[in-house]
Specification:
Layout lengths: L13 H23 L6 H27 L3 H10 L5 H16 L4 H8 L10 E6 L5 H7 L11 E3 L2 E14 L5 E12 L16 H24 L58
Antiparallel strand pairs: 1-4, 2-3, 3-4
């Protein structure tokens, strides 16, 4: 037999480790009490356990299927060939048309809201104040070469094609306290395919990334359909199980002191929540 695969240990110490041990002990005691009371014999409980087990097995099986749905370079080339909208030449032509409209006097903010693929479009493409090192090099070089009120030519980065307008410039203190040059700018981003990422705060996808996501989604759907065709699974019409929710702390077990027989810990007993680090401002094409 193979040894069970161990989960990576989490570095817990002191009070947090003791709380984890206490919660684990409470859960185990409550489980034994439930088994002794025959809760596991109830049909509703059995169905919930079957559903939870099935979800765990599905997740494990999905990892085994990953190599079969992985997109190859040939897959991507074929997909892009069938979808000319993913051709970067079309995206550049669109960006050049918008640039002509900007230089003809149309409102930059309105055009950004209408055409930009970046989340900053909601603010008219406004990226706020930023220093040179915050942006990818081609974008920074173009932005810092402009005077207030000027508009760039087409700037190509890994995100797509940008049209940049600088509103203001200044010298201010950086994170290290030293003076640094900053600009306040807005931009219009045109990407091949023109699609927004599923996560609106994520950077836009390149044409190859869009193709990869589409190909692997198609492969996954086809594979699952083949599995379903080979496997006969029938669900009784009266089968009804409520959507599982994260289980609450075990109820207080009679005869045991508070804090030892289950029940949610009081605020003073709870382990402190981990601090969350700040996230970069959405919309800015910062280099990851």
């Amino acid at each position: 037999m193979k040894k069970a695969e161990m989960l990576p240990a989490t570095a817990l110490e002191g009070e947090q480790l003791e709380k984890l041990k206490q919660n684990w002990a409470q859960t185990m005691v409550a489980e034994r009490k439930g088994l002794a009371a025959g809760v596991d014999k109830e049909r509703k409980t059995q169905l919930q356990l079957m559903l939870q087990q099935s979800r765990i097995l599905v997740d494990a099986y999905a990892k085994q299927l990953e190599p079969r749905i992985k997109a190859t370079d040939a897959d991507l080339d074929a997909y892009v060939a069938k979808h000319p909208e993913l051709d970067p030449k079309q995206a550049r032509a669109k960006a050049e048309d918008i640039l002509r409209r900007v230089r003809a006097g149309e409102d930059f903010t309105a055009l950004a809201k209408e055409f930009s693929a970046d989340p900053s479009k909601e603010d008219g493409g406004d990226l706020g104040w930023f220093a040179r090192e915050r942006m990818v090099k081609p974008f920074a070089d173009a932005a810092f070469a402009l005077k207030p009120g000027e508009v760039s030519d087409i700037v190509e980065t890994q995100f797509g094609f940008h049209i940049i307008k600088v509103d203001e410039r200044r010298t201010d203190k950086g994170a290290d306290g030293k003076p640094e040059e900053q600009v306040k700018a807005r931009h219009i981003l045109i990407t091949a395919g023109g699609g927004q990422p599923a996560n609106p705060l994520a950077p836009p996808q390149t044409p190859r990334e869009q193709a990869r996501a589409a190909v692997e989604r198609e492969k996954q759907e086809k594979l699952l359909e083949e599995i379903m065709q080979r496997t006969r699974v029938e669900v009784a019409a009266e089968f009804a199980v409520a959507q599982p929710t994260p289980p609450p702390m075990p109820a207080q077990i009679p005869g045991m002191p508070p804090g030892q027989g289950g029940g949610a810990p009081s605020p003073s007993q709870q382990a402190p929540a981990p601090a969350q680090s700040g996230s970069p401002r959405p919309g800015a094409p910062a280099e990851q």
